[in-house]
Input
Amino acid sequence: MIALLALLVGIAAGLLFQPTLPPVVAPYLPVIVVAALDTVLEGTRTRLEGGYQEGEFIVAFLTNSALAAFVVWVGDRLGTPDLRIGIIIVFGVRMFISLAAIRRHIFRGP
Amino acid sequence: MRRKNLWTGNERTHRKGRRPGLGFSLALLLLGFLVSTGFVQERLRESQLPSRRQELEALVRQRQSDVRDLSREVQGLSDRLGEIQDRFARDSSQVREVVEEGELLAAVAGVAGARGPGVVVELADSPRAPTTRGEEADLRIQDVDLQLVVNTLWEAGAEAVAVNGRRVVSTTAIRQAGGTILVNYSAITSPYLLVAIGDPNVLHEEMARSDVAERFGVWRDIYGLRFSVEHVAAASVPPLRGVPELRWARPAGEAP
Amino acid sequence: MDWGEPPLRTRELRGPTMRPPSRLQTRVALVVVAAAVGFLVGVQARNSEEVSSRLAAESPEDLTRILADLNTEADRLAREVSRLQVRLVRYRTSAEQDDLLLEDARKSLADLQVLSGTVPVRGSGVVVLIADTDGRVTWELLLDLVQELRDAGAEAIAIGDHRVVASTWFGPAPSGVVVDGEPLAPPYEVKAIGPSEAMAEALGIPGGPVAVITAQPNVTLDVVRAGRLVLPALQREVAFRYARPAS
Output
């Protein structure tokens, strides 16, 4: 419940303060969001299934986002923007797997 | 009281690896913040885009009218100078001789406008938007492309050539500065229209079977560059704008 | 907030066992997931909008180029206006209008003669000497070199005995190049009259035609500044058969 509230507070903060992103960072926001979303779904899943580790989750949240941004950065430097698509696919697949696990858990129990 | 409960609960569950704590909430807070920031950024960008466009359009319109006014002024001044010259040319046979000799050369030098039959060669950038620097070179017309087409036109016997309204004379450089092609030091953009006056059939034939045309036949399919040659019954080529005042080269026969 | 407390407390009492989550926790999870999916959709929608607006952004870029073009044009016209005004004032105020006019007419005739290539030309400039024993220097490279010299302000150019004017064309030949239909074999001597400092500097720019030419094996290129150069007149007759003067 607190987590959900935090999500809403985060959205409200973004809309309220309207921070201006430097143009250098702007291209990485979409992949960071996707990576973060995946980690949160993953976290939700482990919460439901057990074995949730707070520290591990935070580290995963930060490193996944950082790696996603880094891969896109490297891709742009190498002239292959396709790496961005690769990131989206990888996290997309993971999100579906997490989602399936969460669904299973909610409807069938552990 | 509650807060304390939460904290202690948190610590315990953390150790046992079961209950989520503040970290999860913080992560979601950050996620929400990132998403809404993205939303705000995008909306800001969209709202700024049209206004910047309008500003640019207004500037372009302003500059266009400036250029029109200045051209009229130049024309007016040239006319008045011409009148004075004509008046004196009537009185002085010496001046008349020199002016007449100059008029004969003006066409060949490219300082006078010319019209007649010919061809128009059109080259244009690919409609595809380049994503990398290498692709940009492939999808855009380069200075070399225009140089080679002009070279082929001269070879085919063209008498006068202009690129996007810039007359090609003996001092004309077709050169690239960054992504922009300059002809007579003035920037031109795609589509590029090369007008040549000469025998339309010969020009068309030579152009069609040139190496440049052959290469563009391939590039048209791969990159979407545009290349076409068309007959024109009445083409017109403008004079060189802003005749250069030569500072270094003098006729060898002239007294130093 | 208050209604969120009992489950926490009860769970605390139950202890950390692998039990199914409480009804409330399930509901929360469901809401979180629903929200996540909603955001996914939102992010995606934004993404596709971004692509379309990026395409529209191509247009302002073109506008900027057009604007730069117009600025150069306006500057040039403004200079032309002041030049003509000076001349007009000189005609009006000078006591010897006749001499002035004759002088101006002669100067523009001389310029036209130089531009059209009908007379030999003298002046200071640079000489580019290209020694090429293996025939590596192609006509495209020479054309590129000529363009570079013109860009640097060359007013008259000649390659060997061939004056290079606007209509001069280059082509391949078995033993060298073709200039205006005449074969020409190396070594090539390219003379250019104009600002020698600017031309020598332009030729030395990395990645320019000189760098490309000297990168060929067994090719040497020397740029020599010359105080006095004489370039031959165009050897062929330039006569218009199709072009007529346009006012």
